Structure formats: C-alpha cells, structure tokens
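Help needed: design a sequence for this.
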C-alpha cells in the first residue's frame, strides 16, 4: 500500500508540472479589425492615407499581434504589438487594389482577421501614341486601361465616332486592354484615333496618330541575286577575253 500511495503521489506531482508547462489556450480569444470580427472588404478611393486597427478580445493575458501585407510580414514598432496594433497605408494608390492585410495572433496564427482593399479609381490610359504603317499592311492600336470599376470603351476617329467596316475593322478587349485592328490599311485611314473609356468615376482618353506610308516597291530577292551573278560573270569573261590586249598595253 505504501508503494501504491507513493506512485500515486508522484503521478499527481507530474500532472501538476505538466499543467504548469502547458501554454494557455487561445480558445475564445478573438480579434477585430476596424470593428469587424470576420474577414471583410474595405472600399476606398485614392486617398492620402487609411488606418487599420487590430484589437484583441476575450484574453486574460497580454497578446502579441502580427500584421501581414499579402504573404509578407509588416515591420511593427515595439509599442505597437501588444493587445492593439495599428497600421497606416499612405498614400492609397492603384497598386493597393486587391491587396489583403491580415492581423494574426502571434501565438496562434489561426486566430486572424483579413481585410481586402477595394481601391476605386477612374480610368488611366496608356499606349503607343504614333504608329507608322505601310499601305495595305495590317495594324493594331492597343489602348491599355486601368480602372476600378472597369470602364466601357469607344473608338473615335478625328473626334467623330468611328464607323466600323466589318471586313476591315475588329474590336477586342480584356479587363485592361482595348484593341482596334485595321486590315489592309489605306491612305484614308490616316488620322487621329481616340480610345475613350468611361466609368461611373470618370472618363479617360488616349490619342493614337496613325500615319499610312506609301507602299514600298518589292524587288524579288532571287531575281536581284541572279542579276548580280550574271553581271559579275559577264565582267570576268570580258576581262579574260581581252587579257592579251591588256598585256600589250602594259
């Protein structure tokens, strides 16, 4: 009986020691970002700055917090990590659209709240301004457009709505690229083409100057080579035939 009592005592001591070494559970601990306890989307326009504030709830101890931009961890100052943590995005620009910021509990990264930025901005257009094309060749005008929400495109020629010819004009677009293709260009296609993109936040335009050049005469390469060979051989034969006369002169 004494040995049994001793073994039971030792077991209770080990159990207490294990309890001392067990880390506190994160069950019940919650986070909120800007008063949102679940993942959410934050809509904003282009602005000088926006702030995100992460707060710990239902914890009996101090909790360290971590912030991530996408997969990369944000560097936080020492006084901005415990129980509450704030980050500032400054300025908010087009590249922040669709980026996710996540606040996580340091000791249990499964406890987290993520916020995805929905940065809305009017159309911004780009593309090659002047294009030179030979008559009867094909050409494509490419208008690159960034906007949120996505805009609708229209093509103008010399400030007038472009009249599309099914046999010669083709329009194509993706979320950020609008293209106008013209097959077998003619002199009448010379002019300024305007890509107009409209959205509820505003409009954007981009001018493309199309210069149609004269068709260059085409010389068959084989015929040119053959002619050079014939001329060269003729000259050589002439020199050989008059070799004796050349020698007498010298």
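Sure. Designed sequence:
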């Amino acid at each position: 009986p004494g040995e049994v009592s001793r073994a039971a005592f030792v077991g209770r001591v080990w159990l207490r020691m294990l309890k001392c070494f067990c880390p506190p559970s994160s069950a019940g601990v919650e986070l909120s970002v800007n008063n949102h306890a679940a993942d959410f989307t934050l809509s904003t326009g282009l602005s000088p700055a926006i702030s995100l504030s992460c707060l710990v709830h239902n914890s009996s101890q101090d909790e360290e917090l971590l912030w991530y931009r996408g997969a990369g961890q944000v560097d936080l100052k020492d006084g901005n990590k415990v129980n509450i943590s704030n980050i500032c995005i400054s300025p908010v620009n087009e590249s922040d659209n669709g980026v996710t910021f996540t606040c996580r509990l340091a000791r249990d990264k499964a406890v987290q709240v993520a916020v995805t930025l929905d940065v809305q901005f009017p159309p911004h257009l780009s593309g090659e301004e002047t294009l030179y094309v030979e008559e009867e060749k094909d050409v494509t005008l490419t208008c690159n457009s960034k906007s949120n929400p996505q805009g609708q495109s229209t093509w103008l020629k010399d400030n007038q709505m472009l009249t599309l010819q099914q046999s010669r004009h083709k329009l194509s677009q993706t979320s950020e690229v609008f293209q106008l293709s013209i097959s077998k260009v003619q002199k009448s296609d010379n002019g300024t083409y305007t890509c107009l993109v409209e959205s509820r936040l505003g409009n954007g335009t981009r001018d493309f100057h199309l210069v149609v050049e004269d068709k260059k005469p085409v010389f068959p390469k084989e015929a040119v080579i053959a002619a050079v060979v014939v001329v060269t051989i003729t000259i050589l034969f002439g020199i050989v035939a008059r070799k004796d006369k050349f020698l007498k002169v010298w």
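Helices lie at 2-21, 221-241, 243-249.
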